[in-house]
Amino acid sequence: MQRDREKSLVDVERWIKDGKMFLEDEKYKESLKNYEEAIKKEENNAEALFGKGLALYKLREYKRAIKALEKASKMDNAFSEQIEQFPSAYTQFMVALDFGIGPSYEVVIVGTSDAGDTIAMLSALRTSFTPNKVVILRPSEKTSRQSATR
């Protein structure tokens, strides 16, 4: 009986480790499968539930992600008080967590602000929701301050 329990714990650890690896490799479906296998063996494992929540979030299954993360927080009690006190901050936490885990995208556009190609690039970047996107516009025209000093 003890030996079966030890083997089960080793399996859970392996599923979680593989889930993390797939999450880092941006293979979110595979990551989710691994975390779900770990949860089958140990349904209240906070680490597996948290990983499942992250994988679901990356797959844009937000309702299921929140459900898994809430269950993880109840198991772990790490953030449950804060979530209850500041529920709107929880969503911002999720965005920050997603940005931190990555990948994130950085785009720098250099050009004249009112040029057609600059406007087209900015418009193209706004067509889809990409929460981990940082866009910097570096206008090539001189600003009034630069003109005044010359």
Q: Which architecture of the largest domain per CATH?
A: Alpha Horseshoe
Structurally, the number of domains stands at 2
Describe the biggest sheet? 2 strands, parallel
- What is the ordering of alpha helices and beta strands? HHHHHHEHEH
Give the strand content: 5-15%
Distance between the termini: 83 Å
Which spans of ≥5 residues are poorly predicted at pLDDT below 50? Answer: 144-150
Radius of gyration: 22 Å
Strand order of the largest sheet: 1-2
Structural class: mainly alpha
- Give the overall silhouette: elongated
The number of helical runs is 8
What is the CATH topology assignment of the largest domain? Serine Threonine Protein Phosphatase 5, Tetratricopeptide repeat
In round numbers, the mean pLDDT is: 81
Number of strands: 2
CATH top level of the largest domain?
Answer: Mainly Alpha
Q: Level of helix content? A: 55-70%
Provide structural commentary.
The chain has 150 residues and is mainly α. The protein folds into two domains: 2-101, Serine Threonine Protein Phosphatase 5, Tetratricopeptide repeat; 105-149, no CATH class. Helices cover 68% and strands 9% of the residues. The chain is built from eight helices and two strands. The chain has helices spanning 2-24, 28-41, 46-58, 62-76, 80-85, 87-101, 116-125, 144-149, and strands spanning 105-111, 133-139. Strands 1-2 form a two-stranded parallel sheet. Helix 7 (116-125) links the parallel strand 1 (105-111) and strand 2 (133-139). Helix 2 packs antiparallel against helix 3 and helix 3 (46-58) runs antiparallel to helix 4. It is elongated.
